[in-house]
Amino acid sequence: MTTILQLTQEDLRTEIRNCLRESIAEIRATPDLEIPDRVTLKEACEITGFSKSQIYKMSMLHQIPGVHCGKRRIFSRNELLTWVAERTISVCSLNAPI
To answer: Would the pTM count as exceeding 0.85?
Structure first.
């Protein structure tokens, strides 16, 4: 049996807000949401701090981790983060006596 409800516009808005709040609460309560490992060129720029042109150049010279897929270059978030960490110099080591 189907039930048909008549709601005012304001009641409908209230119901939609309640549904959205419940959905958002469920999403926030979900443990360990996995971030996709594949990143876009823009995200690769944000992770490395390099411009698009620098990423393209380093990519062509195989100086940065990534794979070719046709004409596209695909980057792994984990590989880029590891790559950046390996090339990061801490401030403490710069101030240490030689």
So the answer is: no
